[in-house]
């Protein structure tokens, strides 16, 4: 009988090389004193690996259920735990190392999730362009802040962010008519209890909505009616 010194596979005597790794085979000689007598199932005796003074296959002594591994200097108990939780050399899982790797994966996922969220919620400039007789004009107002009030200047209340006092039909505009806000990556408009209200026409809808009563999301190319003045919203 021959065996491969590299992989341990056994071959018949007529083989010269291992068909797995090409290593030259050697003759497997078993000394007579080392030969293991055949045993029947009834004669087999399984030694308790944790019995006192037992020895494992590496020649390390097992005492009180603890293997003193001379190769690594670590002690491994019955539960495969070491005194320092580092038992890679025994083929066991290094909990500290794998825990760190898992934490790294979580932290990276969290980083990219935060980054994507930041990109999604990044401030987006918008614009409202005045419409007259259902046609766009060259007059527009930029929404360049996260909160902007649109209305009409009055000495008693002061300036507003977007002043419509010089536009036709400005008399139908309240001093603080509505508020544009940017939140969580979206634009909203809110009626500030104006006299003549705020109305929104979504996309290609044929008619404006009823007067809004709560902050309403605005999408690209929605139309807004503030009093009797109509704007096209673009972002």
From TrEMBL:
Q: Provide ranges: composition bias, Low complexity.
A: 68-89
Instruction: Spell out the Pfam families in the cross-references.
Output: FHA (PF00498)
Q: Where is this region: Disordered?
A: 68-94
Cited InterPro entries: FHA_dom, SMAD_FHA_dom_sf
Q: Where is the FHA domain?
A: 148-200
Q: Which SUPFAM superfamilies match?
A: SMAD/FHA domain (SSF49879)
Please report the name of this protein according to its UniProt entry: FHA domain-containing protein
Q: Which organism is it from?
A: Acididesulfobacter guangdongensis
């Amino acid at each position: 009988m021959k065996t491969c010194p590299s992989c341990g596979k056994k071959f018949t005597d007529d083989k010269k090389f291992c068909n797995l790794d090409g290593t030259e085979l050697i003759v497997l000689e078993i000394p007579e004193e080392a030969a293991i007598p055949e045993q029947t199932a009834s004669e087999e005796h399984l030694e308790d690996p944790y019995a006192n003074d037992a020895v494992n296959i590496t020649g390390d002594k097992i005492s009180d259920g603890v293997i003193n591994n001379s190769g690594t200097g670590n002690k491994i108990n019955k539960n495969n735990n070491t005194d320092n939780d580092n038992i890679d050399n025994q083929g066991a899982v290094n909990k500290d190392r794998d825990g760190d790797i898992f934490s790294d994966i979580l932290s990276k996922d969290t980083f990219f999730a935060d980054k994507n969220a930041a990109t999604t919620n990044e401030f987006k400039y918008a614009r409202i362009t005045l419409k007259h007789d259902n046609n766009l004009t060259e007059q527009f107002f930029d929404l360049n802040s996260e909160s902007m009030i649109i209305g009409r200047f009055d000495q008693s209340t002061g300036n507003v962010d977007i002043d419509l006092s010089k536009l036709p039909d400005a008399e139908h505009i309240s001093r603080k008519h509505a508020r544009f806000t940017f939140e969580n990556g979206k634009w909203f408009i809110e009626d500030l209890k104006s006299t003549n209200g705020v109305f929104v026409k979504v996309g290609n809808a044929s008619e404006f909505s009823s007067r809004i009563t709560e902050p309403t999301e605005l999408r690209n190319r929605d139309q807004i009616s503030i009093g009797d003045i109509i704007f096209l919203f673009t972002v």
